[in-house]
Structures are given as C-alpha cells and as structure tokens.
Amino acid sequence: MVGFFEDMARHALGWSGVMTWEAEDAEMKLDVRSPDGNAVFFDFLMRWPPNYEDEWSGSFAVSAEALPQAAEGMQKLTGEDSGHRFITPGPSAHLAAALISGATALLATDR
Prior knowledge:
The chain is of the alpha+beta class. The protein has one domain (about 1-110). The protein is built from three helices and four strands, in the order H-E-E-E-E-H-H. It has helices at about 1-10, 65-80, 90-110, and strands at about 15-20, 30-35, 40-45, 55-65. Strands 1-2-3-4 form a four-stranded antiparallel beta sheet, with no helix packed on it. A hairpin with a 7-residue loop joins strand 3 (about 40-45) and strand 4. Helix 1 packs antiparallel against helix 2.
C-alpha cells in the first residue's frame, strides 16, 4: 500500500483512468481517480473474513496537494521506508496489450 500512495503522489498532477490497489487477501480494495489534478476521488470496499459477506464501502475526496503527505503518513503507519506498487490494470491497459499483441502477430505473418 505504501508504493501505491507513493505512486499517486508522483502523479499528483492527475492521471487518466483508475488506479487500483487490493489487499493480498481481498479484505480491502481502493479505486482512485484524479482526472484533473485538483481532487483525488477514492472509492473503497472493505470485507471481513472468513466469508467476506460483510462489506463496508464508501467514497471520499481529498485535494491532490495532500498526496505527498498521505504517502508519508502511510510510510509512518506501516514503518516502511518505501513500497512496491502492485496494481490491477484497468480495462484500457488490457485492451492496449491485446491490440499490441494482435498487431505484432499481424506484422509477423506479413513477412
């Protein structure tokens, strides 16, 4: 999670699409958007094991200027100096990968 917040801080001027972070055992998921670099919109989902039937979800927004402080706060909370980001690419990333793969295959057959 530290790496996820660090990455958002690096892109504080905004990004297209949704950045997603999910806990290893799926107890928590964050979908974050910042289309204009002014506000950052968080949608979260929390689930409790063992059944994951009990859920709590919500949304909130913060100023993009707060992202570096949020990353620093996450470092202090977890005791980690830095993190590695594990993201789930959005649909556009999967589409781009499929298009590149298809184009590569077509080019290979034309030779």
